[in-house]
Inverse folding.
């Protein structure tokens, strides 16, 4: 796929490019349009401690470059990229290094949520490192049946919480198989994260979705509750529903777009194809034409 120009072009719809510089150029453009950014260095499930340490180094560079260029952007990383499969003793120091640099730059560091095989470990490590690094933010997935309970525990510690629907294939015992149930779960969790009680504990909710009904619900719910525009944000992915940026910005909400970069795009790209069958059809048409 790397060698086919048509495939590369299509990947570039979702990925800024192979280098950090590619991502920073996209972030600069977004910032100029009034949109904030999150930067992801693509990679997951590394198999050596050296690769995990290099991933953490890359995020230090992301943080330094963002600060040097005075960009409105934060990093967003995966724990299996920092070595979670090799054990917490490998992953934790890497996460602490990135979180500490984030603290020095007064920047949030988002910890993405991966498949349910990692939910317990991710939330556990998040809670431990968050105790000394208040700038660590975490992600929950509305499709998981357990998430309402996880959200209550995150509210207790006043966490910054990104709510997404969830991007991995999960068994029905663990996750709602029906999209309507996932959307209903998202709506309930959204209301809880925007509740006066959660906000009073210092929760900072981020609603990550391209679902217009849920984006509207977040804004309506915030307006009804008198939540100021700087106490929550909406988030989308680079290359998806770009048409929403201008109207969302015009409505006065804070919008953040997650911009991935790097060579290791396969897993991320496949999740984007899988969540929308139309992408797959388009992709194959491009390949045939190419
Ligand atoms: P839904 O799938 O219902 O889509 C709503 C509409 O959005 C579609 O009708 C279509 O118009 C558009 N759309 C959605 N996906 C598209 C695609 N791939 N291509 C083109 N159009 C598309 N997941 C996870 O498990 N862990 C995580 O840490 C994160 N982090 C994260 C950060 C941010 C900023 C976002 C926006 C999303 C995530 N996700 C994630 C991914 C998330 O779980 C989910 O898979 C995608 O956001 C797609 O679901 P939607 O909420 O957009 O709804």
């Amino acid at each position: 796929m790397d060698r086919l120009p048509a495939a590369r072009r299509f990947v570039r719809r979702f990925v800024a490019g192979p280098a950090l510089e590619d991502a920073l150029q996209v972030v600069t453009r977004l910032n100029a349009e009034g949109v904030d950014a999150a930067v992801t260095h693509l990679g997951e499930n590394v198999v050596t401690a050296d690769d995990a340490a290099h991933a953490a180094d890359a995020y230090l560079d992301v943080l330094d470059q963002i600060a040097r260029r005075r960009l409105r952007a934060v990093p967003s990383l995966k724990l299996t990229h920092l070595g979670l499969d090799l054990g917490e003793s490998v992953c934790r120091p890497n996460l602490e290094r990135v979180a500490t640099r984030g603290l020095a730059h007064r920047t949030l560091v988002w910890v993405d949520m991966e498949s349910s095989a990692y939910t317990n470990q991710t939330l556990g490590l998040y809670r431990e490192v968050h105790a000394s690094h208040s700038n660590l933010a975490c992600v929950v997935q509305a499709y998981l049946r357990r998430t309402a309970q996880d959200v209550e525990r995150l509210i207790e510690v006043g966490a910054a919480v990104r709510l997404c629907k969830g991007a991995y294939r999960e068994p029905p015992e663990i996750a709602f198989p029906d999209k309507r149930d996932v959307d209903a779960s998202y709506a309930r969790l959204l209301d809880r994260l925007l509740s006066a009680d959660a906000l009073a504990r210092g929760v900072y909710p981020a609603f990550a979705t391209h679902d217009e009904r849920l984006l509207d619900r977040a804004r309506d719910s915030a307006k009804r509750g008198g939540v100021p525009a700087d106490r929550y944000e909406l988030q989308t992915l680079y290359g998806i529903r770009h048409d929403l940026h201008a109207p969302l910005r015009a409505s006065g909400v804070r919008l953040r777009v997650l911009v991935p970069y790097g060579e290791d795009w396969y897993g991320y790209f496949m999740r984007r194809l899988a969540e929308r069958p139309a992408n797959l059809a388009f992709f194959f048409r491009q390949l045939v034409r190419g």
